[in-house]
Design brief:
Layout: H1 10-39, H2 48-51, H3 78-101, H4 107-112
Helix pairs in contact: 1-3
Bound molecules: zinc ion.
Length: 113
């Protein structure tokens, strides 16, 4: 006879969601990097581009390359970009909902997350 799986209470279930949500954030950051590399023909640096300080990250900064090489990518088009945007909107919605309602959340709300 199989042993029944112990039921987690809602607080434990919510606490298990946080590391999963964090992996979505990492995935989004990678997507943004790929998107920016594509948008700027490879001349994008995650450190220096947002601050407009080429070379600040060190001598291997891609912004210091003398001539850009064509960067072939289709990551700015179609479904890929649409998925990136909609996934990030969903991520933000869940994070905001968890921040607002994690304390005292109903089981149905937690199932939705
Ligand atoms: Zn840099």
């Amino acid at each position: 006879m199989a042993h029944p799986t112990p039921k987690l209470n809602l607080e434990e279930r919510i606490n298990q969601l946080y590391p999963i949500i964090d992996t979505f954030k990492e995935t989004h950051e990678v997507r943004i990097m790929v998107y920016n590399l594509s948008a700027y023909d490879g001349l994008y640096c995650a450190t220096c581009s947002p601050r407009k300080t080429p070379g600040d990250c060190g001598p291997t900064c891609p912004l210091l390359r003398p001539e850009p090489e064509p960067y072939h990518s289709n990551h700015r088009h179609g479904d890929w970009q649409g998925d990136m945007v909609s996934d990030y909107q969903l991520y933000r919605q869940i994070v905001a909902d968890m921040a607002a309602h994690a304390a005292g959340a109903s089981e149905n709300r937690v199932i939705g997350w």
